[in-house]
Design brief:
CATH architecture of the largest domain in chain A: Alpha-Beta Complex
Oligomer: homodimer
Largest interface: A-B, 29 and 29 residues
CATH topology of the largest domain in chain A: Nucleoside Triphosphate Pyrophosphohydrolase
CATH class of the largest domain in chain A: Alpha Beta
Number of strands of chain A: 11
Number of domains of chain A: 2
Shape of chain A: elongated
Number of helices of chain A: 4
Structural class of chain A: alpha+beta
Order of helices and strands of chain A: EEEEEHEEEHEHHEE
CATH superfamily of the largest domain in chain A: Nucleoside Triphosphate Pyrophosphohydrolase
Strand content of chain A: 25-35%
Radius of gyration of chain A: 19 Å
Largest sheet of chain A: 7 strands, mixed
Chain lengths: 223, 223
DNA sequence: CATAATAGTGTATTTTTTACACTTAATTTT
DNA sequence: AAAATTAAGTGTAAAAAATACACTATTATG
């Protein structure tokens, strides 16, 4: 009943995923309610144990899919948390990832290990299990700083988007309003966008041009 | 003879350390020659298995001290490498760190697990064990980018240093010469330095003022 | 047809970054 | 002792980047 034996003690290794989206003009994070102890019924980041033959990133994507039904997100390794006492059961080292996706695609569904799956605005978080508050905090920091020297923000809008939507993303992550003209000048000067040709419709105001990334799916580093 | 048993397979976890210094006006890295298989007699980054009751950072510092005799370096987590086949023995996940120290303090001594310990200039590296070339490459990238928005460079000079020495560090990491006046203007505008009062001596030219960090040991983020 | 809502556009000012050359103080050589 | 060598130390002007700022355009709604 315990057939996996080693000459030296081995820690367990998990991945945890902080998936961000923007919901109702606020940064939000995907949490699951835990089915089993420890921290039973507590909210936690999705995640789970690394399988013997999968890479770490695959593990993160698999756990996210299994627990929440969500696929196709932008994913990046964040930090590895390994304090000896971070899990009451045994030594568990967690490789934390953060992920980004536009809200529209995402309809989370509770999976096998999770009784409930739910978006929470970052300013209205419940108590979290383990050291997940630390992970979340670091993820938010990373998101903020990386905004300035990369194109991660594009992972939070749809495939085609208006400059107004994109500006909103920047404003929400930075927590401050931006000047419209300067923002547009900056974004267009990157030469990463192509006009999709189409425009918005069904909005009760002048329709905005829709843009798309010239090279979709590619993360760019600026400067 | 294999008393550590678990219900599910557990990977082994190690830390590996890429310790940089500047030696003869070049970036150099500390390597050890492996005593035992796999990759016996190969050069590798110092590192080793995480003990059950130590944090990851402690593990990195302990392994560095055990294998090379070096202590008191600046240390920062880099990335976690976990491809299933990165070690031929068993599944081993490595939490990689990078470290910085001025060359003067460092007199590496071979430890128990390492037959030899030696500095190598980055432009004259031997073949490396495992995926250590990947780790090293990522570490160097991180070093370069972090130079621009933090005070890591100060970890590569002595406690007191001249502006010329500091400029050399920036030039070596960036791989290009910098303008002396602009560099000094920039560094002094950070308001992080204090004049030590003393000057260089024993050099065959005008002696430079020696500076120190106003808050030694603190890493600052710029902008 | 008036109102509401967001899209879309350009210029002047300030700040930051860059380019650039000579004098000073110590040691070494002649 | 004078000359040569070596790196230290210093300021200004030009270019580039970032910032501040206000009105017109286009759609839907009442």
């Amino acid at each position: 009943m315990a057939p996996f034996c080693y000459d030296y003690p081995h820690p367990a290794v998990t991945t945890d995923i902080a998936l961000f989206t923007i919901l109702e003009d606020k940064l939000a994070i995907l949490l699951i309610r835990r089915r089993s102890p420890p921290f039973q019924h507590c909210w936690a980041l999705p995640g789970g144990f690394v399988e013997p033959d999968e890479g770490l990133e695959n593990c993160a994507l698999r756990e996210l899919a299994e627990e929440t039904g969500i696929t196709g997100v932008y994913l990046e390794q964040l930090y590895t948390f390994g304090q000896p006492d971070r899990d009451p059961r045994e030594r568990i080292i967690s490789v934390a990832y953060y992920a980004l996706a536009p809200a529209d695609i995402l309809a989370p569904v509770a999976g096998s290990d999770a009784a409930e799956v739910c978006w929470f605005a970052l300013d209205a978080l419940p108590d979290l299990a383990f050291d997940h508050p630390d992970i979340l905090c670091l993820a938010q920091q990373r998101l903020r700083t990386k905004l300035d020297y990369s194109t991660i923000a594009f992972s939070l809008v749809n495939e085609t988007f208006t400059l107004g939507e994109l500006q909103k993303v920047y404003e929400i992550i930075r927590g401050e309003p931006l000047d419209k003209r300067n923002f547009r000048k900056y974004i267009l000067s990157l030469n990463l966008l192509a006009e999709s040709g189409a425009s918005q419709h069904g909005c009760n105001h002048r329709p905005a041009k829709l843009y798309r990334l010239a090279q979709p799916g590619t993360l760019h580093y600026l400067r």
